[in-house]
């Protein structure tokens, strides 16, 4: 019997339609959001950049052109836009300067990526090409760099001045730049010169005077007066300083309760006990030879009372009260002493020694306390920042922080590079030449990235009121002739050898800006969907 043939279904491979429009839309939305953030800070780039006035939710006003500060205060909702804020923070942590530059470069790279994606190039191809371009760019920058020694103070001051020239307080760069260099070189440990901890440089802000009155204090400085309510001393030579974390005041009950006093004799007994308790503590302190007390602020009860201040004044002990808890570590490191948590542990070997502790009047009603001539002083220093109003003081502090970071960069990676858009144009030229050698999509993508790096000199010229197209064209021409240090001199409004104009920056600022910007752009490119979890 013949078997009946069952017809088999045809296994023809039919193409199914896949909708990629949503993925493309997500990418374009992310790129547009991040680009708008970059455009917001772009006008504040360079020495002629504009300042931003930021009004916070609490009603405070901040005037600054520091990229990290502007972005930190932006209330952003879009996730990709928030990535640019994190990018700026990363640059601030890595190099301290170039926070606006890194965001502007990221915005320009994203714009190039958007054009490449609309031409049908796959995001992975674009991402890989960008990674190769970033690696090549760091090599080109390293070849352009000029080595610098820590003993070459002039070069360090030049780089700090370049950082300050784009700030609101740029007119004070001749004062703040040497001050930043001296502060960092003072705290550098010769055994570990690469590790500079900026927490060893304390910035004390005091309202009054002008930024010209800012000074470096080789010792300690407190933005408060000596406690002389009971007529205590305000100046002490050959000071023996105790840093205490306990209270010189009557003890309180452990739990919240009230004590009822029924007659005068009981009240007298309580007051007598309080007096003898405080007097006993002060006698123990005086017995060690201590004549200056730094008292930590207490949240449990009053650190000192009027009675204890009276007895301390009688014992000729100078008192500085309400020292913040987070300042204790810095103070003990500077004074080379130990904090004392209990009066029973108060010993002479735990004290710090200084030649002079005095209250200094600043001439405009304000007073500060200075401790100078510290014996065996730790590697720390204090900068006293003055200013006519709080906005100026805050901006001076931010600018000084950037200058300190620049000097720290030079200490850890001792290479200088030209500023004024010179490295970006040179990168653009060399990457463009390298792209011609490469084949396929890779070369096409790298050429687009090379062109997007021209955004820095273009923006510098635009913010300075120059003709950006003419300036960038001339700059490109000068670099093609081999003038790798030709950059935009915004003061003269022309192109000059920027190294001779002393416009220099640490190599680390440029390399970390390129590396971090490319990493951020690659991350945004790889996102094809946004999932919201409620």
UniProtKB/TrEMBL annotation:
Major location (coarse): cytoplasm
Key word Transcription regulation present in the record?
A: no
- Protein name per UniProt: T-complex protein 1 subunit delta
Under the cellular component aspect of Gene Ontology, which terms does the record hold? Answer: cytoplasm
Q: What does this protein do?
A: Molecular chaperone; assists the folding of proteins upon ATP hydrolysis. Known to play a role, in vitro, in the folding of actin and tubulin.
Keyword annotations from UniProtKB, A to Z: ATP-binding, Chaperone, Cytoplasm, Nucleotide-binding
The family line of this record is: Belongs to the TCP-1 chaperonin family.
**Stored InterPro entries:** Chap_CCT_delta, Chaperone_TCP-1, Chaperonin_TCP-1_CS, Cpn60/GroEL/TCP-1, GroEL-like_apical_dom_sf, GROEL-like_equatorial_sf, TCP-1-like_intermed_sf, TCP-1_chaperonin
**GO MF annotations in UniProt:** ATP binding; ATP hydrolysis activity; ATP-dependent protein folding chaperone; unfolded protein binding
Where found, per UniProt? Cytoplasm
Superkingdom classification of source: Eukaryota
> Would the keyword Mitochondrion turn up in this protein's UniProt record?
no
